[in-house]
Write the C-alpha cells for this entry.
Amino acid sequence: MGHMLSFDVEEYFQVEASSCGVRRDAWGGYERRLDGSIEKILSLLDEFKVTATFFVMGWVAQNEAEVVRRISRAGHEIASHGMDHRMVTKLRIQDFREQAVASKKILEDLCGQKVVGYRAPTFSIVRETMWALDVLAEAGYEYDSSVFPIWHDRYGVPDAPIAPYWACGPEGGRILEIPPLVWPVMGMNIPTGGGGYLRLLPVKVMEWAIRRAEKEGRSGMIYLHPWEFDTEQPGLPMNWMSRWRHRVNLCRTQKKLRYLLERFAFMAVREWRGSRN
Ligand SMILES: [Zn+2]
C-alpha cells in the first residue's frame, strides 16, 4: 500500500511561530539556509528511489529559484504553499485568490511542470475558510492538503474525514482533499502526520499509525519542512512554547524519516493518484 510524502518548502524564518518577531519585509535580510536542507532531503530520497511532493512558497521560487529547479529536476512533484506564508484565516478572498493563481504560475514557469496541488500555510483551511476550496478548484488546482482533522490551537477541523476524500466548498467547488495522517484513538485523532509531531513522538508511534491506516485501507500523508533537517539554524524571537515546538528533536528528523522510508512505500501525490487510476 502506498503512502504520500511531502515537504513544505519555506525558510526557518518564515514559520508562523516567529511571525510576530520577524516581519515579512525583513525576510530579505536573513541568512538563507534552504539549500543545505534540500540537499540532505534529496539525497535521502534518491537513496530510497522515492519521489515526494514539495509544496513550495512563491517567495522561495522568486528568491531561491535554483533550489526549486533542483527539486524539480530530481523528478519530484512541485506544488504550491501560497506566496508569503500568510494564513488563509488572515486573508480576504480576493487576496487568497491572487496568491493561489500567482504562486501556481510562478512555479509552473520556473519548473515547466503543471502545478495542481496546494497546501495552505499552517494548515489554515479550517471551518471558517472553506471558501478557499472553491477558489482553489476554480484556479485549476486538483487537490488540496490543508485540512488537518485534529484539534489544535492554531488550526484543524477535528471531525473532518481522515482518509483522502472529495471535499466541496460552499459554492460547490470540488477538490480532492488529502488530510495529513492521524491516529484515531478513543474518538480522538492523534496528529501523527509529521512536522513537530514526528520530532516529538517516538517513531514507533508513527509506525503504528501507518500500520493502523493500512489495516483500514487508508493511505497516509506525511509532511516535513526543510528547516527540520537543519540543526544549526539561528534562533529567532518566539515565545517559549513556540521555540520548543520549533526546535524539539531537530537532530532526530533525518533518522526518523529514514526509519519510515525503510519500512513503508512512499511516493509523491502525483504518483499516488496515478497508481489509483
Ligand atoms: Zn509552511
About this structure: Residues 149 and 157 are 5 Å apart (CA to CA). The pocket of zinc ion is lined by residues 8, 10, 81, 85, 121 (CB under 6 Å).
